[in-house]
Amino acid sequence: MLSVRAAARYHGFYSRSGLRSLGRVSTRHIRTATVTDSDIARLAATPLHPLTLADLCKHGRPPLSEQALLGSANFTLDILPARLAHRIQSLRALPYIVVANPNVSKIHGNYVHSLSTLLPYAEKKIESFKDDVEFTTVLADLVETHSNTISILARGFLEARKYITAREVTRFLDEHLRARIGTRLIAEQHIALHFTSQPHNQLSADDQDLKDERAESNTYIGVIDTALKPAEIIRSCEATVGEICELKYGVRPTINIVGNPETTIAHIPMHLEYILTELLKNSFRATIEAGMEKEPIEVTIAPAPANEHQTMELKNKPERMERNTHGIISNYDQGNVDYASGSNKPEISASANIRPLSQSTPGVTIRIRDRGGGISPENYDKLWEYGFTTFNEDEINDKVSGGNGGGGALDVISGGAGGGSSLAGLGYGLPLGRAYAEYFGGGIAVQSMWGWGTDVYVSLRGVGKID
């Protein structure tokens, strides 16, 4: 789900301008190279280390010069093949009978296809704007190819559940979904930079609508809004979730925003929109079903300054494989540990392409407080489990094939960055939302008072001041 501003920006890039510019190089004519086992093994041996928002902003504010744009393209090309190879290795490490499942096999094939489209470019540098147009077409194909990955995997693991334990599936999915966030983000960042860069401006000088979109989006560096205002996204998500509630229940709770609504942060709107949509959906539903819809849901926005202690801890921190516990980006948070394939070891030296986070940055904490009765003790410990294991086969088959399955209108709004409405009602919302929050050193914490209500804390770390 995108805010009006973000939606206009994305739809402009991927439809009008995208079709006109990238249409010159049809995806049917994308060059491919044969992917060998040695290619996969060589690339998967490359260690993957945490990506920072600063990495994505380092080429400067658009419109980029041609040199900076080509630098972004080559940076993207340097890091994507290894990430795809890690995913292929991880899939191959699953039991053979699971990989042989048609749905899991399809995802494996998609990753091999995407790697085959990148290899012809990985053998050389991108040295001209024409090369970049072709490369951006490849990235657009990559993003589209993997748009339904999560729902297809959900069906595959359901069908193969006799041959793999729920714990193994949860570990694989948690790693895979976090890694997928980074792969899509890197590709989408360069696509967005391509369409806001100087050479593209020159080619589209007669497109006034596109110029107007760029003028309105001048706080963006690619997909990062350097002046993202959480209050605006909260109101946008409130309107969307409220309309669905009104259709289903005939009522809609209200939100009171307190704290500092003028707070801004450099972050990715799509990520925050997904997180807030999931959390507000849960709060609205609980509030209505508890008969407390007249009690406003209180959302507190609190700016969080950079923490000197965290900065020192980051600089002195050895590489770890465990989960983020103190606002520090770990390899686990970004799906870079490759537990499944075993190909990413903490003792391997850091890649020069992706820099670890070296300092703490200002951020924001958002608290959502409702009077929806809280979370029952038996469900509290299950909040972060992938819920597909709790549904029966008919329900899952209906949901992953796009049906509503009687799950309620609220189930169809879990789209956007999370992977589309095909995930609706599968129990992916909270764990995937936490993955988005933790990806850049933030997090989600839940405190429940059973019989009263729930407080949810979302913390995000920004990239700091960008000139």
UniProtKB/TrEMBL annotation:
PANTHER family: [3-METHYL-2-OXOBUTANOATE DEHYDROGENASE [LIPOAMIDE]] KINASE, MITOCHONDRIAL, PYRUVATE DEHYDROGENASE KINASE. InterPro entries: AK/P_DHK_N_sf, BCDHK/PDK_N, BCKD/PDK, HATPase_C_sf, HATPase_dom, Importin-beta_N. GO terms for biological process: intracellular protein transport; regulation of glucose metabolic process. This is Protein-serine/threonine kinase. Residues 122-186 form the Importin N-terminal domain. The keyword Transferase applies. It comes from the Eukaryota. The keyword Lipoprotein does not apply. Pfam families: BCDHK_Adom3. Belongs to the PDK/BCKDK protein kinase family. It is found in: Mitochondrion matrix. One of its GO terms (cellular component) is mitochondrial matrix. Its main location: mitochondrion. Its EC number is 2.7.11.-. GO terms for molecular function: ATP binding; pyruvate dehydrogenase (acetyl-transferring) kinase activity; small GTPase binding. Keywords: ATP-binding, Kinase, Mitochondrion, Nucleotide-binding, Phosphoprotein, Transferase.
